Each structure stands twice: as C-alpha cells, then as structure tokens.
Known about the structure:
- By secondary structure, the chain is α/β, with parallel strands linked by helices.
- 27% of the residues lie in helices and 24% in strands.
- The protein contains nine helices and 22 strands.
- Strand 15 and strand 16 form a beta hairpin.
- The radius of gyration is 21 Å and the shape is globular.
- The two termini are 19 Å apart.
- InterPro entries: FAD/NAD-bd_sf, FAD/NAD-binding_dom, NADH-Q_oxidoreductase.
- Residues 3-303 form the FAD/NAD(P)-binding domain.
- Its cofactor is FAD.
Amino acid sequence: MANVIVIGAGIGGMCAAYELRAAIGSTHTITMVGEAPTFSFTPSNPWVAIGWRKPSDIQVEVAPALGRRGIDYVACGVARVVPQESRIELTDGRSLAYDYLVITTGPRLAFDEVPGLGPHGGHTQSVCTTPHANDAWTNYEAFVKNPGPVVIGAAQGASCFGPAYEFALMLDTDLRRRKIRDRVPMTFVTSEPYIGHMGLGGVGDSQGLLERQFRQRHIRWITSAKIDKVEAGQFHVSTLDSAGKPAGEHTLPFAYSMVIPAFTGVDAVRGIEGLVNPRGFVLIDKHQRNPTFRNIFSAGVCVAIPPVEVTPVPTGAPKTGFMIESMVTTLVANLKADLEGREGKAEATWNAVCLADMGDSGAAFVALPQIPPRNVTWAREGKWVHVAKVAYEKYFLRKMRAGTSEPLYERYVMKALGIERIKPGTGKH
Length: 429
C-alpha cells in the first residue's frame, strides 16, 4: 500500500485527489494538505471583487467533500518539503512521510518585488485569492461613493493576464450601470508588448479583439510597462521600446487599482536544489514528474514553464484551468503506472480554453496547444461567453462537491470538440 500526499487544495490539488482515488483505488492512502478549510473557484474571484458574487457562492468545504471519497484532509500549512527523506514538515511542527508527493500549491504572490504593490502594506487590490477579492470589493464599495481615476493591470514578470483584462472590462460595465463611468478615467498598464499578448504571443486575433473593446470603452493602455513603484494615489511607470531601451516614464494618479503581480514558487519548496528553478517553480519532465526526485509529481501554476518568447519587459506563460486539468490527468496516469511497475508515458496536451467575462459580454480564447506552434487557435466574443462562464462556474463547483474531476459526459463533449487532456498514444489511466 502506497501513501500519496497532495499539497494544495486548489483546482489542481482537488482534481488530482479525486482523479487519483478513481485511478488507484482504495488500497492506497491519499492525504491532502492545505491551509484553508474551503476550496475556492479562483476564476470567479473577479466577480467577488466587483460584488457580483459572495465568497460563499464560489466555495466548497474541503474536508467533507474529500471524505466522501475516502481522502483524508489535513488543514495545515506546509513549512518545508524534504524530498531527500520523502516527507513534509507542517507549520504546526508535525512531519508526514510519503511514498509519492503531488505538489499543486499554486504560487507565492510576489507583491514584494514592486514597492507599494499589493493589498497588504501596499496600495493596490488583488483578485488572486478569494480573501483578496473580498477585500477588493470592500474597497470598491468605498470607491464608488467618491470615484476617481482607476489603474488596472499586470506587473512585470506576471504570467496571469486574463483576470486583469476581465476585471478592467467588468469594472467598466459596473461603472456604466451605476452611471458614474464618466467620472472614472481608466488606464490599463501591462508588461505585455501589446494588448492581447497574454503571455502567449497572442491567441487568434486577441490583440484586435481586446484593443477594440478598450477603444469602445475608453480605456487607455500602456504596454511594455514596468511598474517602478506605487505610492498612495500615484503610480510610477517606465516603458521600454522593442529593443528593450527606455522609451518613457509615466506618473498615473489613481483612486482605485487592481494589479496582478509576478509569481514565484512557495516558500516550502524554494531553494531546494533539483526540485525547483531559481524562481522556486517545480521542475518537471514531459510526464509531470520531477527529474531528480522521481516520486514527486507536480501540476498547476507552481510548475516551471519557460516564457513563450522574450519580451522587452518580462512576461511569463500562464497556466489556465483546462491546462492544469490536463497536467493533473497526465500525472495521475503516470503515478498509477509507477505503482503498477510500468513506465509512465502519458504526456499532457497543455491545451488552453479560456472564458473571459466582460459583464455584459465576453471573450473566448482557444489555443491547442497553449504553447506555439499550435494546431488550433482562435478568439471569439459575444454574450454567449458570459452565459458559458456562469454555467461553467456552477458545473465546476458541482464537480468539486460530487468528488469527480472529469465526468464521462464532459470527456466525450471535449473529445468531440477536439480538446484532449493527454496526447493521443502516450498513455491513459
């Protein structure tokens, strides 16, 4: 009997725990370790920040949901992974041994890399976590009583651009509904070399689509931007040209701001030679397995993926929801193979499917695979995307409560659309 520990109760961790239980059966022990008592559906955080959802609307109690599948839950933070000894140290002083470790922690939010950035000790809001989004809503409520300039964006090194675009466009919609949009100049500041780059070199005509939306909504933008510092009510931003040389400086006043920071790996794994890269992201091979510590697998935002291309201001490659699920299905197949004494050969497709809400409309982006060159790439917009995202939120939360990651009908629907989790012929579980 093997003891499998999954670190992190986010999208990757919950899906991994459920898929592992279905794949390896009840003879093996699965334990999840996570800091919070609840799972939060991260893609809905922008809705929380603008008051269109309450935190409880997008959360699931973790322990009861996992318990129904025979999965133990330890509600405690991880202080350190000790891969040489196949154990983890918890923040309460306990030590847990494992035969296999699945790291799905998500990232550390590197607000500290820009002076004045972030909701704790800084001057900007965040939608990276549900508590952050709820704080952003509290501040937004105060803002609408005395509106002024708004700055939304993504800092240098950021890899998660979708929520910044979503929030800017939803904010515009909400302000228009409140009939105070005319009192709120809006500026979008991003490290991307152009609007719609998304850290992916663009997806279909994402540049044209998003630039058109920004023009129609009177949202000014500044690209190839490096945020030097944020002071109370004021951004200091430098821009670079295509050769990486200084191109200008901007001072932007603001009364409300939300900025996506760069990410790093979490403290529990940072600095462990052979396990992580210099930024603390977990090193994996094409089978989602760490090359040095062969009993460690990883998926999600915490894994090391090189940038798609070099940009004047550093940008990272995003890890979208379906891409994370693709990683999870792959690692489960390969971990199961290892348990059975077989060589795990499954490889993730890393296909990307993104639904971005705009409040009264939406944009859908599909990149198969996410990293170019691609077999399929397109971007579409319309009210149907808003409806689809609302439906997907309800559906995903239902999956988390029911204890399944990929119901049979979802598998067939995605396959019919040509969207697979594992590369054909590389393995299955």
